[in-house]
Amino acid sequence: IVVFDIFDTLITRPLLNPEDIKKIIADRADKPAGERYLEFRAMAENQARQIAGRDVDLDAIYRELSALSDLSADAIEQLRTLEETVESTIVSPRPEAITLFQHAKNLGKRVILASDMYLPKPVIESLLTHCGINGWDAFYLSSENGLRKDTGDFYRQLLIDEHVSPHEVLVIGDNEQSDVQKPGDFKFRVTHVMRPVELARATPRFEKIIEQAYSPNYQSDLNTQLTIGTIVQANFQPLFYPRFDPADFVPATPWAVGFTIAAPLVLSFVQWLAKKATKDTMQCLYFVAREGQILKKAYDLWTAEDKHAVPSEYLVLSRRAITVPMISNLDDIYKIARTDYAPNPMPDFIFERYGINLTDKECETFARHKIWPRKKAVFVENRNIDHLKPLLQALEKRILEQAEQERPALMAYLQDTGLRADAKTAIVDVGYAATTQGYLNRLLQQKIHGYYLVTLDAAETIAMAHQVITQGYYYHFAKASATEPVLYRKSFTIEKFLSADDAQVVRYRTSETGEIIPEFRSLASEERQSASTRAEIRRGILDFIHQSIDIRNNLLDDFEIPAHIAETLFLQFIEKPSQSEHALLRSIVLDDYYYGHGLVR
Q1: Separation of alpha carbons 303 and 317, rounded Å
Q2: What values do phi and psi take at 341, rounded to 5?
Q3: Between β-strands 341-345 and 377-380, what pairing exists: parallel, antiparallel or unpaired?
Q4: What is the pLDDT of residues 60-72, one digit of tens each?
């Protein structure tokens, strides 16, 4: 005989504390009834048990709740229906436990379910079937027969009913007392299946997250409990960990990193963005390539059922694609040059920043005229370009011609996207200094607003100069130091998490037929090899968003990912990555030619 516990063994809930279900039910109920429910529900259950002298079902509990709360019969019935609905909705299958269940059946074992639970048997059977669990031989439910596992009564009765010896019974469950200690006292064979939250608590790095969620400041906050509960349920539901590494934050897979680290950062931002853009009466949001691709998907998913959500578009732009067309004088040329650039050959710098291909002969001429030594590399830091000014002055005419050549196609593209229309619009990007937003305001001569994960104090200059919104979510007009803010200092990691498979757009041009055509940088083979990893990260992000939508629709209609939780998860991951996490991050290759770094792992 194999006896399976049900809750937290075969099925799990996205909660650190199962009792938080009561708070969810109270939240979904009408306010007066919900408050009375939360005040008297536990008391009603205890009182019903004392009266019956045994375990009880919902009928008995709600009779006492009715007497204690003075609620109407209709309100009591609505609460009971709501409790059964929430309990049924909140559970998910635990795949490896269900595999064990099926294996026991396939071996011809007699499979018995046992649960100390107040829910009616038809409700539990229905949710089990919904989770793909069926075909058990017997089902012992304490609220039906009064026999609880944690008192040992169930195990005594099982030996009588089944006519077996203790060594012929294997008990599989999560509860240390009712599924391990008590059957062990009877000499039953026992397999302890740990609850996901206990597995998470046992990992050195995730333990800090669990302890924070249990702290007085957060233990009553359903947003925190459901966010962490969902992440714990997803990452720690397996029963077996053949390659377990205690140094890992969560299993070091691209999917898990997407689900656990990237998704909360993205969704918390998107939830804020949806409200903020509506409040600011925006008429369209333009998500900027390439990180904007997954941000837009997240936004569109989250707001799909919101009739008042601001519409979104995808803007295929890059710093290179917009900076050259907006050049109108030598100062503009200097401004582009002042951005940091790692040591590289001078022709590479001129091509990356201005789109000019210099021949060997031209380079020799510059050397001969002592404008730029033949083999001297370009290196820019701290905005110092004094050494470059003679070269840029010599190339001024050609650069201005290049700008004139690129500008019409870019303007036409922006017009096609609707960005030039007479509407209140904003771009959405990862952020920092709002540079692209500033260029768009100058180029289009109209107010283009901006929303970002992070803005530095330099973005305030853009906001003041153009009288526009440059709003950061996690940090707003932050003053960057050598270590803070970490979301900015580790921005390349965030860009890796959010990067798209598409190549970077270099510029726009007009074909002979008048069509606006983007020119993309060719993807290197190393970048293409990263595609499968990025796809798994994106799958994790989208899975988390879908689960969050289910929580919003079925459990907590104002569900939001707390910003501090999203940031804390990222910080815990990035502070001391394990070897596996380092390897995962290095497997994602991004181009950083604009800053002179080429391909970066």
Answers
A1: 24
A2: -145, 125
A3: antiparallel
A4: 999 999 999 999 9
Q: Judge contact between 322 and 443, C-beta under 8 A.
A: yes
> For residue 117, is it within any domain?
yes
| 9 contacts: CB under 8 Å, gap ≥ 6 | 94, 97, 172, 173, 174, 179, 193
Cβ proximity of 568 and 212 under 8 Å: yes
Contact 376, 348 (CB under 8 A): no
Distance CA 593, CA 334 (A): 18
Token couple for 340 = 């940091």
| pLDDT surpassing 90 at residue 421 | no
Residue 422 has a pLDDT of 81
**Average of pLDDT values for 430-454?**
95
User: What is the separation of C-alpha 270 from the centre of its chain, rounded to a whole number of angstroms?
Assistant: 10
CA distances from 156 to 144, 160, 165, 173, 188 (A): 16, 7, 11, 17, 11
Among the residue ranges 238-247, 295-304, 442-451, the one predicted with the least confidence is 238-247
CB-based burial label for 397 (10 Å; 0-12, 13-18, 19+): exposed
| Domain edge (last residue) among 182, 202, 222 | 202
Provide mean pLDDT across the span 121-132.
96
DSSP 8-state class, residue 376: P
Query: Residue type at 269?
Result: F
Counting the structural domains of the chain, the total is 2
**Residue type present at position 22:** K
For residue 145, give its domain range: 1-202
CB-side neighbour CA atoms (13 Å) of 399: 25
Confidence band for 278, pLDDT divided at 50, 70 and 90: very high
Residue 328 and residue 189 share a domain? no
The answer to whether the beta carbons of residues 86 and 24 sit under 8 Å apart is: yes
Backbone angles phi, psi at 43, to 5 degrees: -65, -40
Residue 49 domain flag: yes
pLDDT digits (tens, 9 = 90+) for 57-116: 999 999 999 999 999 999 999 999 999 999 999 999 999 999 999 999 999 999 999 999
* 194 and 327 fall within a common domain: no
Omega prior to 562 cis, within 30 of 0: no
Residue 482 domain flag: no
- Of the residues 147, 175, 202, the one at which a domain ends: 202
In the prediction, which pLDDT does 566 show?
98
Question: How does the average pLDDT of the chain come out, rounded?
Answer: 95
Predicted TM-score of the model (pTM): 0.93
Q: Give 570: exposed, middle or buried? Use CB within 10 Å, 0-12, 13-18, 19+.
A: buried
